[in-house]
Design a protein that fits this description.
The chain is built from 13 helices and 25 strands. By secondary structure, it is an alpha+beta fold. It starts with 11 loop residues before the first strand and ends in a 6-residue tail after the last helix.
């Protein structure tokens, strides 16, 4: 699919070519939707930034056929060590802590720049061109679309007509500002630093190493290459205001980590924000990723949430553009993703506020809870499982969505192994599918056939029951792997199909 200036053949304009924009482009390409993607930067990111890729993201990547490629470029997180004053206080064993819950029961460490390169590689194979050094200047909405004025690399201006615009252009989003959408929230008082360095000296063997003290903390993560580390943490008290250099934090880093820094490859300071856009949709314009929500780095949720936004929106846009569903389905993007983003911001805010605070409670958290309480708690068998469910995003659900009908609808389809394969194999076509675990009635089979929706039948077993699936119930699964309808009433199922699904005949 080649990029061109043919507005008629490019119904979607993607603004921003970070992970969220690239992922949306891959989904739209997979679904047969033409688009243009622009980015103001001259090239892809070159720093590691976000480094965690969660199970739910890999499940969605599996549907795109790129999960194994991502895994091959990263490393599976095995353990987190917590040290204090040069002494290891405890270790959190991760490994395959999500066994039985996902086909990807681990946490993948994958620096963002490498992550982006994998996405770009697959887009290039599909013939997609990223229009670099191209800036969005303004948006004008019409009843049937949007006109975007952009400025290209040679200061040439162009008016692009599109049916929809996807704002994936970061926390300072021009798309969001052009729509006058509020970005409410706040900024944490403390300033943070992040750096990629070369270093000598002994460091614990953990994939992630936390160095906690009463007044400070920092984290060191090994990067590909010899003696390379991502180091991040609180800017120490007493450090001058204004533009900082690594030299300003180096004494605290070396004291905490016992590393000797030999080279600084990248250094940046930043403030952490917690904000959610008041709306994720303004008529034909949508906000995704950091343009819609920013939050603390607790649990490595940020990039993964943006990738989830892309997976949620892509199939809905495709359905509308192909005329296979009620256009009201686009309202569910805000319903589903804004609710989750707000919940995520609130939950990570509570944890992050405690850990980074200069208060007495913050000191207790860093000097006692992190190094002593957390390692002991993590040895309880249910704690790692709970942590995986919470952080991997497999528990995201949309029970209040207009798309969810039936008790338990709106959840991600529970994963279960089925003989030599699993029930997620049927999701690789990125289309509506129907699952029944147990017996499917003739009425259900007829509805599936008449709607051109594949019906997959799975034998009932204790193994299937343990996964949380309901016997003899119909699971009508959306293209993004979430359950739209769950129940046993053929009439109710038929009404749902008439409202939301007019699948393409295959």
């Amino acid at each position: 699919m080649q990029s061109s200036t043919d507005a008629q053949s490019k119904p979607v304009l993607i603004v921003g070519a970070g992970p969220t924009g690239l992922c949306l482009a891959l989904w739209l390409n997979r679904l047969g939707i033409s688009f243009r993607i622009i980015d103001q930067a001259s090239g892809p990111g070159t720093t590691s930034r976000a480094i965690i890729c969660h199970a739910r993201t890999l499940e969605m990547y599996q549907s795109l056929g790129i999960a194994e490629d991502m895994i091959s470029h990263g490393s599976k997180l095995q353990n987190v060590t917590i040290a204090q004053q040069g002494q290891i206080r405890g270790s959190l064993k991760f490994g395959n802590i999500g066994t039985g819950l996902s086909p990807f029961p681990f946490i993948l460490s994958l620096p963002q720049d490498i992550h982006e390169r994998v996405l770009l590689d697959h887009l290039q194979r599909a013939g997609v061109t990223i229009e670099r050094s191209t800036t969005l200047e303004s948006l004008k909405q019409h009843d049937d679309g949007v006109t975007a004025r952009v400025c290209g690399p040679h200061s040439d201006h162009e008016d692009i007509s599109a049916s929809y615009v996807a704002g994936c252009d970061g926390a300072r989003s021009t798309v969001r500002k052009s729509c006058g959408i509020k970005f409410e929230g706040g900024t944490y008082e403390q300033k943070f630093f992040v750096s990629d360095v070369n270093a000598t000296g002994h460091i614990p063997t953990g994939d992630v190493n936390i160095f906690a003290s009463g007044r400070n903390f920092c984290i060191a993560i090994p990067l590909p290459g010899e003696k390379r580390y991502r180091v991040l943490g609180l800017v120490p008290e007493g450090v001058k205001d204004g533009d900082l250099e690594f030299a300003d934090v180096q004494p605290a880093v070396e004291d905490n980590t016992r590393l000797g820094i030999t080279a600084v490859n990248w250094f940046s300071t930043y403030s952490v924000h917690h904000r959610v856009a008041s709306q994720f949709r303004e008529h034909n314009v949508f906000l995704l990723g950091d343009a819609a929500h920013v939050h603390s780095p607790v649990g490595g949720q940020g990039m993964n949430t943006g990738l989830g936004d892309a997976a949620n929106l892509a199939w809905k846009l495709a359905s509308c553009l192909k005329g296979t569903t009620d256009p009201k389905i686009l309202d569910t993007y805000h319903q589903e993703r804004a609710a989750f983003a707000t919940e995520l911001v609130n939950s990570t805010d509570r944890i992050f506020t405690l850990v980074q605070a200069r208060s007495f409670l913050g000191t207790v958290a860093r000097s006692f809870m992190l190094p002593y309480v957390l390692p002991i708690a993590f040895k309880l068998p249910w704690i790692p499982t709970f942590a995986f469910k919470k952080n991997s995003q497999i528990q995201i659900s949309y029970p209040q969505s207009d798309l969810s009908t039936g008790n338990g609808a709106g959840c991600r389809l529970p994963w279960v192994e089925t003989g030599e394969s699993d029930n997620y194999k049927s999701l690789e076509d990125s289309r509506w599918v129907m699952h029944v675990y147990g017996e499917a009635s003739d009425e259900v089979a007829t509805l599936a056939s008449e709607s051109y929706i594949p019906l997959h039948r799975y034998a009932w077993s204790d193994h299937v029951s343990k996964a949380g699936l309901v016997r003899d119930s119909v699971y009508l699964v959306r293209p993004d792997g979430y359950v739209g309808y769950l129940g046993t009433d053929p009439g109710e199922l038929g009404d749902y199909l008439k409202r939301w699904t007019v699948p393409e005949q295959k």
